[in-house]
Amino acid sequence: MSPPFSDARLVRRIQSARDAAWDRSAWPATVPAVAHVLDAGLELGPGVTFLVGENGTGKSTLVEAVAAAYGLGPEGGTVHSAHSTFRSESALADLLTLVQRPGVPRWGFFLRAETMHGYYTFQHESGGPDFHSMSHGESFLAVIESYMGRTGFYCLDEPEAALSFNSTLALMGVLGELADAGSQVLCATHSPVLASLPGAVIYETSDDGIRRAEWEELDLVINWRSYLNAPERYLRHLFS
User: Which of 25, 49, 95, 108 places its Cα 20 to 30 Å from the Cα of 33?
Assistant: First the structure.
Protein backbone atom coordinates (compact mmCIF):
# COMPACT_ATOMS: atom_id res chain seq x y z
CA MET A 1 0.00 0.00 0.00
CA SER A 2 1.46 3.36 -1.03
CA PRO A 3 2.11 5.93 1.72
CA PRO A 4 -0.36 8.83 2.04
CA PHE A 5 0.37 11.95 0.02
CA SER A 6 2.42 14.46 2.00
CA ASP A 7 2.38 18.14 1.07
CA ALA A 8 5.85 19.42 1.94
CA ARG A 9 5.12 23.07 1.22
CA LEU A 10 5.66 25.41 4.19
CA VAL A 11 3.06 27.87 2.88
CA ARG A 12 0.43 26.26 0.71
CA ARG A 13 -1.95 29.08 -0.04
CA ILE A 14 -2.57 32.81 0.35
CA GLN A 15 -6.19 33.79 0.97
CA SER A 16 -8.34 36.39 2.64
CA ALA A 17 -8.61 36.09 6.39
CA ARG A 18 -11.86 34.79 7.81
CA ASP A 19 -14.36 37.64 8.22
CA ALA A 20 -11.92 40.07 6.59
CA ALA A 21 -13.74 43.11 5.24
CA TRP A 22 -12.20 45.35 2.60
CA ASP A 23 -13.33 48.35 0.63
CA ARG A 24 -13.36 47.33 -3.01
CA SER A 25 -13.28 50.98 -4.05
CA ALA A 26 -10.06 51.70 -2.12
CA TRP A 27 -6.43 50.81 -2.81
CA PRO A 28 -5.03 48.17 -2.76
CA ALA A 29 -8.28 46.25 -3.43
CA THR A 30 -8.65 48.30 -6.63
CA VAL A 31 -5.58 46.54 -8.04
CA PRO A 32 -6.95 43.61 -10.07
CA ALA A 33 -4.30 41.11 -8.95
CA VAL A 34 -4.87 42.00 -5.30
CA ALA A 35 -8.65 41.72 -5.72
CA HIS A 36 -8.15 38.30 -7.31
CA VAL A 37 -6.15 37.05 -4.32
CA LEU A 38 -8.69 38.45 -1.86
CA ASP A 39 -11.57 36.85 -3.75
CA ALA A 40 -10.12 33.53 -4.90
CA GLY A 41 -6.81 33.08 -3.09
CA LEU A 42 -3.49 32.06 -4.64
CA GLU A 43 -1.79 28.67 -4.50
CA LEU A 44 1.98 28.72 -3.99
CA GLY A 45 4.09 26.10 -5.66
CA PRO A 46 6.82 24.07 -3.97
CA GLY A 47 10.19 25.76 -4.31
CA VAL A 48 10.09 29.12 -6.07
CA THR A 49 7.02 31.11 -7.13
CA PHE A 50 7.54 34.25 -9.25
CA LEU A 51 5.20 37.19 -9.69
CA VAL A 52 5.93 39.14 -12.87
CA GLY A 53 4.15 42.04 -14.51
CA GLU A 54 4.25 45.74 -15.26
CA ASN A 55 4.73 48.43 -12.62
CA GLY A 56 1.55 49.07 -10.69
CA THR A 57 0.00 45.64 -11.24
CA GLY A 58 0.39 44.54 -7.62
CA LYS A 59 3.49 42.29 -7.54
CA SER A 60 5.36 44.11 -4.80
CA THR A 61 2.19 44.91 -2.86
CA LEU A 62 1.38 41.20 -2.69
CA VAL A 63 4.90 40.08 -1.77
CA GLU A 64 5.17 42.77 0.91
CA ALA A 65 1.80 41.78 2.41
CA VAL A 66 2.63 38.07 2.39
CA ALA A 67 5.95 38.78 4.09
CA ALA A 68 4.22 40.77 6.81
CA ALA A 69 1.50 38.13 7.21
CA TYR A 70 4.23 35.55 7.78
CA GLY A 71 5.77 37.76 10.46
CA LEU A 72 8.71 39.15 8.48
CA GLY A 73 9.74 42.78 8.81
CA PRO A 74 7.81 44.76 6.16
CA GLU A 75 10.93 46.84 5.39
CA GLY A 76 13.11 43.75 5.20
CA GLY A 77 14.37 41.32 7.78
CA THR A 78 13.75 38.06 9.55
CA VAL A 79 10.79 36.73 11.53
CA HIS A 80 9.56 39.35 14.00
CA SER A 81 12.10 41.92 12.78
CA ALA A 82 11.62 45.25 14.58
CA HIS A 83 13.27 47.40 11.90
CA SER A 84 11.12 50.32 10.72
CA THR A 85 12.00 53.73 9.28
CA PHE A 86 8.93 54.98 7.42
CA ARG A 87 5.67 53.05 7.22
CA SER A 88 4.76 52.81 3.56
CA GLU A 89 3.24 49.35 3.37
CA SER A 90 -0.45 48.81 2.75
CA ALA A 91 -2.88 47.27 5.25
CA LEU A 92 -3.26 44.24 2.98
CA ALA A 93 -1.35 41.96 5.38
CA ASP A 94 -4.17 42.36 7.90
CA LEU A 95 -6.65 41.03 5.34
CA LEU A 96 -4.64 37.93 4.45
CA THR A 97 -4.05 34.57 6.05
CA LEU A 98 -1.47 32.00 5.03
CA VAL A 99 -2.38 28.32 4.96
CA GLN A 100 0.76 26.76 6.39
CA ARG A 101 2.07 23.31 7.13
CA PRO A 102 1.62 22.73 10.84
CA GLY A 103 4.41 21.92 13.26
CA VAL A 104 7.31 23.44 11.28
CA PRO A 105 9.71 25.86 13.04
CA ARG A 106 9.35 29.20 11.30
CA TRP A 107 12.27 30.92 9.67
CA GLY A 108 12.34 33.36 6.80
CA PHE A 109 13.67 36.60 5.41
CA PHE A 110 12.23 39.45 3.37
CA LEU A 111 14.57 41.19 0.92
CA ARG A 112 12.87 44.38 -0.23
CA ALA A 113 15.10 46.19 -2.72
CA GLU A 114 13.84 49.73 -2.08
CA THR A 115 14.38 49.64 1.70
CA MET A 116 17.51 47.51 2.05
CA HIS A 117 19.88 50.39 2.83
CA GLY A 118 17.79 51.27 5.87
CA TYR A 119 17.99 47.63 6.92
CA TYR A 120 21.79 47.71 6.53
CA THR A 121 21.98 50.64 8.94
CA PHE A 122 19.74 48.83 11.43
CA GLN A 123 21.89 45.71 11.22
CA HIS A 124 25.19 47.58 11.62
CA GLU A 125 23.92 49.59 14.60
CA SER A 126 22.78 46.32 16.18
CA GLY A 127 26.28 44.85 15.91
CA GLY A 128 25.74 43.01 12.65
CA PRO A 129 27.72 43.08 9.40
CA ASP A 130 28.52 46.39 7.69
CA PHE A 131 26.72 45.81 4.40
CA HIS A 132 27.18 49.53 3.58
CA SER A 133 30.89 48.88 2.99
CA MET A 134 30.06 46.65 0.01
CA SER A 135 28.91 47.51 -3.47
CA HIS A 136 25.16 47.50 -4.06
CA GLY A 137 25.19 44.11 -5.75
CA GLU A 138 27.71 42.58 -3.35
CA SER A 139 25.59 43.63 -0.36
CA PHE A 140 22.48 41.94 -1.77
CA LEU A 141 24.34 38.70 -2.33
CA ALA A 142 25.94 38.94 1.13
CA VAL A 143 22.53 39.40 2.76
CA ILE A 144 21.20 36.39 0.89
CA GLU A 145 24.21 34.31 1.95
CA SER A 146 23.88 35.47 5.58
CA TYR A 147 20.13 34.98 6.10
CA MET A 148 18.94 32.46 3.53
CA GLY A 149 21.07 29.48 4.47
CA ARG A 150 18.45 27.39 6.26
CA THR A 151 15.09 25.93 5.38
CA GLY A 152 12.43 28.62 5.52
CA PHE A 153 10.01 30.87 3.69
CA TYR A 154 11.68 33.72 1.79
CA CYS A 155 10.10 36.76 0.18
CA LEU A 156 12.08 38.75 -2.40
CA ASP A 157 10.95 42.00 -3.96
CA GLU A 158 12.89 42.75 -7.15
CA PRO A 159 16.22 41.35 -5.91
CA GLU A 160 17.71 41.77 -9.39
CA ALA A 161 17.61 45.58 -8.96
CA ALA A 162 21.21 45.57 -7.69
CA LEU A 163 22.54 42.62 -9.66
CA SER A 164 24.52 42.24 -12.86
CA PHE A 165 23.74 39.48 -15.32
CA ASN A 166 26.31 37.14 -13.75
CA SER A 167 25.14 37.96 -10.24
CA THR A 168 21.57 37.23 -11.28
CA LEU A 169 22.72 33.81 -12.44
CA ALA A 170 24.40 33.34 -9.03
CA LEU A 171 21.11 34.23 -7.33
CA MET A 172 19.31 31.66 -9.49
CA GLY A 173 21.76 29.05 -8.18
CA VAL A 174 20.95 30.03 -4.58
CA LEU A 175 17.21 29.86 -5.23
CA GLY A 176 17.60 26.44 -6.81
CA GLU A 177 19.54 25.19 -3.77
CA LEU A 178 16.90 26.58 -1.40
CA ALA A 179 14.15 24.82 -3.32
CA ASP A 180 16.08 21.54 -3.29
CA ALA A 181 16.49 21.85 0.50
CA GLY A 182 12.75 22.27 1.09
CA SER A 183 12.52 26.06 1.33
CA GLN A 184 9.92 28.17 -0.43
CA VAL A 185 10.48 31.50 -2.14
CA LEU A 186 7.95 34.10 -3.29
CA CYS A 187 9.66 36.60 -5.57
CA ALA A 188 8.46 39.65 -7.50
CA THR A 189 10.73 40.33 -10.46
CA HIS A 190 11.16 42.26 -13.70
CA SER A 191 14.01 40.00 -14.79
CA PRO A 192 13.37 37.53 -17.62
CA VAL A 193 16.64 35.85 -16.61
CA LEU A 194 15.61 35.24 -13.00
CA ALA A 195 12.11 34.14 -14.03
CA SER A 196 13.61 31.41 -16.22
CA LEU A 197 14.60 29.37 -13.15
CA PRO A 198 13.78 25.73 -14.00
CA GLY A 199 10.85 24.30 -12.07
CA ALA A 200 9.53 27.66 -10.84
CA VAL A 201 5.82 28.49 -10.75
CA ILE A 202 5.08 31.81 -12.49
CA TYR A 203 2.10 34.10 -12.08
CA GLU A 204 1.67 37.13 -14.33
CA THR A 205 -0.08 40.19 -12.90
CA SER A 206 -1.87 42.63 -15.18
CA ASP A 207 -4.89 44.90 -15.46
CA ASP A 208 -6.91 41.70 -15.93
CA GLY A 209 -5.82 40.25 -12.59
CA ILE A 210 -3.39 37.37 -12.08
CA ARG A 211 -2.88 34.18 -14.09
CA ARG A 212 -0.60 31.16 -14.14
CA ALA A 213 1.81 31.44 -17.07
CA GLU A 214 4.74 29.74 -18.74
CA TRP A 215 8.03 31.61 -19.12
CA GLU A 216 7.94 31.68 -22.93
CA GLU A 217 4.52 33.37 -23.02
CA LEU A 218 5.24 36.14 -20.52
CA ASP A 219 4.94 39.70 -21.85
CA LEU A 220 8.22 40.31 -20.00
CA VAL A 221 10.03 37.72 -22.10
CA ILE A 222 8.33 38.60 -25.38
CA ASN A 223 9.09 42.32 -25.01
CA TRP A 224 12.74 41.86 -24.03
CA ARG A 225 13.31 39.35 -26.83
CA SER A 226 11.71 41.71 -29.36
CA TYR A 227 13.80 44.65 -28.17
CA LEU A 228 17.12 42.79 -28.15
CA ASN A 229 16.45 41.41 -31.63
CA ALA A 230 15.85 44.88 -33.09
CA PRO A 231 16.35 47.81 -30.66
CA GLU A 232 16.12 50.32 -33.48
CA ARG A 233 12.42 49.57 -33.90
CA TYR A 234 11.83 50.94 -30.39
CA LEU A 235 14.45 53.68 -30.32
CA ARG A 236 13.31 55.40 -33.48
CA HIS A 237 9.98 56.18 -31.79
CA LEU A 238 11.79 57.69 -28.80
CA PHE A 239 14.28 59.83 -30.69
CA SER A 240 12.46 60.73 -33.88
Answer: 108
Cis status of the peptide bond prior to 32, with omega within 30 of 0: no
User: DSSP 3-state assignment of 171?
Assistant: helix
CATH number of 11-239: 3.40.50.300
The three-class DSSP label of residue 87 is coil
DSSP state of 5: P
Distance CA 157, CA 189 (A): 7
Residue 181 φ/ψ, nearest 5 degrees = -90, 0
Alpha-carbon torsion (206, 211, 217, 218), positive or negative: positive
Q: Distance (Å, rounded) from C-alpha 161 to C-alpha 136?
A: 9
Question: What average pLDDT score do residues 86-110 get?
Answer: 84
**Residue 106 pLDDT greater than 80, yes or no:** yes
What is the number of alpha carbons within 13 Å of residue 127 lying toward its C-beta?
A: 0
Model pLDDT for residues 60-86, shown as the tens digit of each residue: 999 999 999 999 988 888 886 666 555
User: Concatenated DSSP letters for 128-155?
Assistant: ---GGGS-HHHHHHHHHHHHSSSS-EEE
pLDDT (tens digit per residue) in 148-164: 888 999 999 999 988 89
Residue 223: the pLDDT is: 96
Give, in order, the Cα–Cα distances in Å from 23 to each of 20, 26, 27, 66, 209. Answer: 10, 5, 8, 19, 17
Q: Report d(CA 45, CA 39) in Å as an integer.
A: 19
